[in-house]
Write a structure and sequence with these properties.
Elements (H helix, E strand, L loop, with lengths): L6 E7 L1 H4 L7 H16 L3 E10 L1 H4 L9 H4 L4 E8 L7 H10 L6 E2 L4 H11 L8 E4 H4 L4 H9 L4 E4 L3 H13 L5 E4 L5 H6 L2 E5 L5 H6 L2 E3 L8
Parallel strand pairs: 4-6, 5-6, 7-8, 8-9
Antiparallel strand pairs: 1-2, 2-3
Helix pairs in contact: 2-6, 8-9
Length: about 230
C-alpha cells in the first residue's frame, strides 16, 4: 500500500484449501463449510479469499527477491467467498439424452467441488441425485487399479471431483483395460496424456491450449458437448 508502505498478502482458492491457513474460531469455520456446501449445491463454483499483513523481510528472502508463498500463507484473516456460475448450454440436455439412449456412459472428471459438479450434472440429466457417487482425487489415490476397475464394472453414476490430470489419465487407462472405447475431453496442457491415451481425444478449439489440440483426434470449434 503506497500511502502506508505496508505489504499485504492475498490468497484465493477452494475453501478446503484456504480455511486451514486461516485463524478463526471452530464454529465460524464450520459455518463457512456449511455455506460453501449450500453455494455448491446451487451449482456455484466457489472461491474463498483471505489476507494478512506481512513484513518486507517475509516477502523478500534474499537479494533475488524470491517469494516463499508457503511461509507467507499462514495465520491469514478470512475475507469471504465468491460464487460464480457457468450455466450449461441449452442444447446439452438433449445431447445427454441422446448419448444415454445410444448406450454411452458419461463420467464427469473435474477439479471443481463435487457438490457443484453434482448440481450441474443433475440439471442436464447426466446424474440422478441419490444414486450418484462422488469420488475425490484423495479418495481415488487410495483405490488400487483393480478396485477402480471393479467400480466401473458396477456401472454406477460417478463424479470424480478435485482431481488432477494424472487422475484423469488413470481413469482412462482403467476403462480401456476393461475393453471400453473411451472418448475424453480436455483443454489444458496437462490433459494431453489423457487425450492421447483415449481412443478419441476431444480438445476444445476456443479455450483449449495448442498442446491439447495437438494431442487430440477431434477439436471442437464451438467447445460444445452437443457437437461431440
Amino acid at each position: 500500500e503506497k500511502k502506508t508502505g505496508k505489504y499485504y498478502a492475498f490468497t484465493k482458492g477452494a475453501l478446503e484449501s484456504v480455511l486451514p491457513l486461516c485463524d478463526m474460531e471452530e464454529n465460524i469455520r464450520q459455518g463457512m463449510k456449511h455455506k460453501n456446501d449450500e453455494m455448491a449445491l446451487s451449482a456455484l463454483r466457489v472461491l474463498a479469499f483471505a489476507y494478512r499483513e506481512v513484513s518486507k523481510e517475509e516477502i523478500f528472502s534474499n537479494h533475488h527477491k524470491e517469494v516463499h508463498a508457503e511461509k507467507i500463507e499462514q495465520n491469514l484473516h478470512f475475507l469471504g467467498m465468491l460464487g460464480m456460475i457457468d450455466p450449461p448450454r441449452e442444447e446439452v440436455k438433449e445431447a445427454v439424452r441422446l448419448t444415454q439412449k445410444a448406450g454411452i456412459r458419461i463420467y464427469v472428471i473435474t477439479g471443481d467441488n463435487g457438490l457443484t459438479a453434482k448440481a450441474i450434472t443433475e440439471s442436464v440429466g447426466i446424474t440422478r441425485g441419490l444414486q450418484t457417487r462422488i469420488i475425490t482425487g484423495t479418495e481415488l489415490e487410495t483405490l488400487s487399479d483393480e478396485m477402480l476397475k471393479e467400480l466401473f464394472q458396477k456401472k454406477e453414476e460417478i463424479i470424480f471431483a478435485r482431481v488432477n490430470p494424472g487422475h484423469k489419465l488413470r481413469i482412462v487407462e482403467a476403462l480401456k483395460a476393461l475393453g471400453e472405447v473411451v472418448a475424453v475431453t480436455g483443454d489444458g496442457v496437462n490433459d494431453a496424456p489423457a487425450l492421447k491415451r483415449a481412443d478419441i481425444g476431444v480438445a476444445m478449439g476456443q479455450t483449449g491450449t495448442d498442446v491439447s489440440r495437438e494431442a487430440a483426434n477431434m477439436v471442437l470449434m464451438d467447445d460444445s458437448f452437443a457437437t461431440i
